[in-house]
Amino acid sequence: MKGIDLVSRFEQFAPKDIAVKGDPVGLQIGSLDAEVHKVVTTLDVRPEVVDEAIDHNVDFIFAHHPVMFRPAKNLDLSVPQNMMYAKLIKHNITVYAAHTNLDNAFDGMNDWLAEALQLQNTEGLSFMLNKHDKDFYMGRIGELVAEMPLNEFANLCKQIFNVKGLRLISNNPQKIVKRVAILGGDGGKFYHDAIKKHADVYITGDVYYHTGHDMLADGISVIDPGHHIESICKQKLLKIFSNWNHQYEWNIEVIASKINTDPFTFI
């Protein structure tokens, strides 16, 4: 099969036009007309992920985060990022990224995160746009199976998302929480939507220092487990692509990257 076959099917699930305006989703490097035999799913495209792909004879990397958030200013191969691009081209590896379109998609990233928390009666958190006669939202909000103290819930989040540490922003860590909002990635600017929808706690990553102050002033409790919780996408995409592989008889192999691309270590 060709890359375009995989991408065309995926874009029925998460169309590019539901991504946030300006988000560089889609083909990153290579050609969608190239033949595909082995796909690896990953959160990030980093040099170590590319080396893993080369070692496993992968010819298609499907990532959540775009590899080119910022365009290269030159092709100086002493720069690790540029060397990574050169390796991808040399080994004929196509790279495709589905970012905020995967976040916003039904049964996409934010539904996966809500499902991991076993949230009930979930709905969209922050309205983004109407496309294809559907309303698409960034983030999700729902209810826990059983209410619990915030500090206990924060510890539960550490277990669920497999993180060794997180940041808790709250005026009352002992408060009882039931209604939970979640938005994967950097969602600090959406916390007002969590307040409007009466969330007891809002979960998102990369909360900015001064935004944390604003959250406290506005009385919303926030759990910041980091950006890397989105790595849930590796196994979820593996399952989706494996199902399509069987359904459409693509005869490809799909694997999930085993590289931990979280840049932070708790010490």
Automatic annotation (TrEMBL):
<feature type="binding site">
    <location>
        <position position="64"/>
    </location>
    <ligand>
        <name>a divalent metal cation 2</name>
    </ligand>
</feature>
<dbReference type="GO" id="GO:0005737">
    <property type="term" value="C:cytoplasm"/>
</dbReference>
<comment type="similarity">
    <text>Belongs to the GTP cyclohydrolase I type 2/NIF3 family.</text>
</comment>
<dbReference type="GO" id="GO:0046872">
    <property type="term" value="F:metal ion binding"/>
</dbReference>
<dbReference type="InterPro" id="IPR036069">
    <property type="entry name" value="DUF34/NIF3_sf"/>
</dbReference>
<dbReference type="InterPro" id="IPR002678">
    <property type="entry name" value="DUF34/NIF3"/>
</dbReference>
<protein>
    <recommendedName>
        <fullName>GTP cyclohydrolase 1 type 2 homolog</fullName>
    </recommendedName>
</protein>
<feature type="binding site">
    <location>
        <position position="230"/>
    </location>
    <ligand>
        <name>a divalent metal cation 1</name>
    </ligand>
</feature>
<feature type="binding site">
    <location>
        <position position="227"/>
    </location>
    <ligand>
        <name>a divalent metal cation 1</name>
    </ligand>
</feature>
<feature type="binding site">
    <location>
        <position position="103"/>
    </location>
    <ligand>
        <name>a divalent metal cation 1</name>
    </ligand>
</feature>
<comment type="subunit">
    <text>Homohexamer.</text>
</comment>
<dbReference type="Pfam" id="PF01784">
    <property type="entry name" value="DUF34_NIF3"/>
</dbReference>
<feature type="binding site">
    <location>
        <position position="65"/>
    </location>
    <ligand>
        <name>a divalent metal cation 1</name>
    </ligand>
</feature>
<keyword id="KW-0479">Metal-binding</keyword>
